[in-house]
Design brief:
By secondary structure, the chain is of the alpha+beta class. It folds into two domains: 155 residues, Creatinase/prolidase N-terminal domain (Creatine Amidinohydrolase, Chain A, domain 1); 234 residues, Creatinase/methionine aminopeptidase superfamily (Creatine Amidinohydrolase, Alpha-Beta Complex). The protein is 31% helix and 21% strand. Helix 3 links the parallel strand 3 and strand 4. The radius of gyration is 23 Å and the shape is globular.
Length: 417
């Protein structure tokens, strides 16, 4: 990638105003539901039954907080012909009717329960009741004789759907295809989310010094993101020193020391849309081994970004990254997630997934409107340090548009001696 990345997608303020076009949430809701209907029309499914919370938010525009994240107690149904329906956690259903009366009333936002992941015994019959209700809606909407796509559900739910004579198919692929192409509103929300992380990285760079713990950086990032309006902080990877190689994917209370390499991944949510955004620094002073690892990681990143254009395929990107054995791992399973690409949207890992593990088996063509994160990793020859870089990129007709803008062209030394 030549030169410095520049802001190429809009990143307006987070609040709605009358004097500037920003995110149109009505248009966003219509677009997302239309994408689900497009995938239903292109398949043999009559409907999709959704338990995974990212899918529920995408299809229904309902949200009750991240305490409910993928616990399975709320579910939604989208048929070919009817409005989206949500069975929610107790009073949340009434709240939807009050908050979005143009979309929900007593017929399509009701309380539901499938047993709280087994905490309520199947003997009570909640799963059977849910299956019967779903079968009834499918019949009313004229798709009762068609297969039902289900994304992620408990075994007890699948068993009751079978007993209700509902033909169950994999519905997750339809939802992944629906979420694959982002609208201009989605790209704006994703860019805003990255702009917030740009600012956090400035704070981290100024904060890094000997005696700071990995966990202190996590606390700083949480506080700043919530101050800026983040909806949820899903994870802050904070890794330093000998913990860099191999990558443990979890922070600790380790004290950062002079000369430590440190890398961070910030995953948070802005109005439903996530970031995945790594940066690597060194504290006080940098060795040649650390600089070399960063340079190599950057070269692999730039080679991948250069291929982000419509018509290219994901195997072409995976091919410019090293094999697992070339950077110290047994095989591609052992190294998965290090040289890696993944769609980012209402979920953290969306289509396309790009890696040597899968992309040569099923190459996916890049299309305008895709937005994904590219990640590279290079261990240093000192046996303890490593560099980790991640950029989020939009596929456009005019080429790749990078939306992660905190400087990453060369290894930055915090509080240099």
């Amino acid at each position: 990638m030549d030169g410095f990345p520049v802001a190429t997608t809009p990143s307006p303020g987070l609040h709605g105003v009358d004097w500037e076009n920003r995110v149109d949430f009505g248009r966003l809701r219509e677009y997302r539901l239309s994408r689900v209907h497009e995938q239903l029309d292109a398949s043999d499914l009559g409907a999709v039954l959704l338990f995974e919370t990212s899918n529920i938010r995408y299809a229904t525009s309902t949200h009750i907080g991240y305490w409910a994240f993928n616990k399975g107690e709320r579910y939604a149904l989208v048929t070919r012909t009817g409005p989206p329906r949500i069975w929610d956690f107790g009073s949340a259903a009434r709240a939807h009717r009050l908050q979005l009366p143009q979309l929900y009333d007593e017929t399509n936002a009701v309380g539901g329960n499938t047993g709280l992941q087994g905490a309520i015994s199947p003997a009570v019959g909640l799963q059977r009741r849910a299956a019967e209700e779903i079968r009834s809606v499918l019949k009313d909407d004229g798709v009762g004789d068609m297969p039902l796509g289900v994304d992620v559900a408990e075994t007890s739910v699948f068993l009751e759907l079978q007993r209700a004579k509902v033909e169950v198919r994999d519905g997750q692929q339809a939802m992944m295809l629906a979420r694959e192409i982002k609208s201009s509103d989605e790209i704006t929300l994703l860019t805003q989310a990255c702009a917030m992380v740009d600012g956090v990285y400035q704070d981290i760079f100024e904060f890094l010094k000997p005696g700071v713990r990995e966990s202190d950086v996590v606390a700083l990032a949480h506080a700043r993101l919530f101050e800026m309006g983040s909806e949820f902080v899903e994870a802050i990877n904070s890794i330093a020193g000998e913990r860099c190689s191999p990558h443990p994917h979890v922070f600790s209370d380790r004290l950062i020391r002079p000369g430590d390499q440190a890398y961070f991944d910030i995953i948070h949510v802005n109005n439903g849309y996530r970031t995945c955004y790594y940066r690597t620094f060194v504290v006080g002073r940098a060795t040649q081994a650390q600089r070399d690892a960063f340079t190599r990681s950057r070269e692999w990143m730039d080679a991948a970004i250069d291929l982000v254009k419509p018509g290219n395929t994901t195997d072409q990107i995976a091919a410019v990254w090293p094999k697992a054995e070339e950077f110290g791992f047994k095989d591609e399973f052992d190294a998965f997630g290090l040289q890696f690409g993944h769609g980012v949207g209402v979920g953290l890992h969306e289509r396309p997934i790009i890696s040597r593990l899968n992309s040569f088996e099923e190459p996916i063509e890049l299309r305008e409107g895709m937005l994904f994160a590219l990640e590279t990793y290079c261990p240093a020859t000192d046996g303890r340090s490593a560099a980790r870089i991640e950029e989020e990129v939009v596929v456009t007709e005019s080429g790749p548009k990078v939306i992660t803008l905190f400087p990453c062209e060369e290894l930055m030394v915090a509080n240099e001696y």
